[in-house]
Amino acid sequence: MKTLLLVRHANALHKSTEGDFERQLSPTGLKEALLMANKVKEAGHVPQLIISSEAARAKTTAIIFADTLGLPAPQTQMAIYDGNEKKLLNIINKFPDETDSIALVGHNPDITNLLFLLTGKHIDVPTCTVALLSFEFNEWEAISRNTGDLDWYASPEQH
Asked: Are 54 and 66 in contact (CB under 8 A)?
């Protein structure tokens, strides 16, 4: 069985002089990331690996999660930043099979659309929301449309 923890990056500043890619987390976002990483830890849904967009706001979210969860530094992929749900599925299909639980940190609307693609569920995904999906496969490449079950969902807005 494979589990995928989808994480939308935490709240970010609205503007950056360096452009969208370099937008940093806001003070609220820093608190959200720590809060949600702790919720993941308390719920026992700690992944083995975190893979993140290279954009500053996603990468910082991923680093906070990794530090809080005691994981190695997140891996990054540019395609998560400039992808869509089908590109994200392609990335997931190439995850290493020896790793059973991976967190993917990305952006909206892509995370919301990916959640719908994999589970068929229309769910709001505010900043720093986490959704745990499970798949009855031993290979990441077998994951496709409507093959996932939504096992757990948590949002900073639930507090």
From this structure: no
| DSSP letters for 78-133 | HHHHS--HHHHHHHHHTS-TT--EEEEEE-TTHHHHHHHHHH-------TT-EEEE
The number of folded domains in the chain is 1
User: How high is the pLDDT of residue 159?
Assistant: 56
Give the separation between CA 70 and CA 72, rounded to whole angstroms: 7
On whether the CB atoms of residues 135 and 82 are closer than 8 A, the answer is no
pLDDT reading at 133 higher than 90? yes
First to last CA, the chain: 31
Can you give the pLDDT at residue 66?
A: 98
Residue 67 CA to its chain's centroid (Å)? 15
Backbone dihedral angles phi then psi of residue 2, each to the nearest 5 degrees: -115, 145
Domain assignment of residue 52, given as a range: 2-158
Residue 57 belongs to domain with CATH number = 3.40.50.1240
* pLDDT higher than 90, residue 125: yes
Q: Which residues contact 109 (CB under 8 A, 6 or more apart)?
A: none
